[in-house]
Design a protein that fits this description.
Elements (H helix, E strand, L loop, with lengths): L5 H8 L4 E5 L10 E2 L10 E5 L4 E10 L2 E4 L7 E7 L5
Antiparallel strand pairs: 1-2, 1-3, 4-5, 4-6
C-alpha cells in the first residue's frame, strides 16, 4: 500500500520544494507555506509540490492609451500575465 503522500514524498526526495498547510483548521487557514521539517505522518497537514508560476504572453499594441489585443502573427509582445491556480 502506498503512503497517502507518496507522490509528494518522492518529489521531496528528488529535491523538489514541498508546500504544507493545515488541513483541519480552515478558520486559521494560512495558505501554503514551504515545508521545513519532515512531518509526513501528521494528519493535521496537507502537502503539495510547490507550484511554479505560469504566464500567458500578451501580444498587441497601444492605441490612444488603450491596449488592443490581437492574435495576429507579428504583433509585438506587450507583456505577460501571471496565472494563479485557485485552491479548492
Amino acid at each position: 500500500m502506498k503512503h497517502k503522500w507518496h507522490k509528494e514524498i518522492k518529489a521531496w526526495a528528488d529535491g523538489c520544494e514541498i508546500e504544507v498547510r493545515f488541513s483541519n483548521r480552515k478558520e486559521h487557514y494560512d495558505g501554503w507555506n514551504l515545508m521545513v521539517a519532515d512531518c509526513w505522518n501528521d494528519d493535521e497537514f496537507e502537502f503539495r509540490i510547490k507550484q511554479e508560476p505560469q504566464y500567458i504572453n500578451v501580444y498587441g499594441y497601444l492605441e490612444n492609451q488603450n491596449i488592443c489585443f490581437r492574435q495576429q502573427i507579428g504583433m509585438p509582445l506587450l507583456g505577460k500575465i501571471k496565472l494563479e491556480v485557485a485552491d479548492d
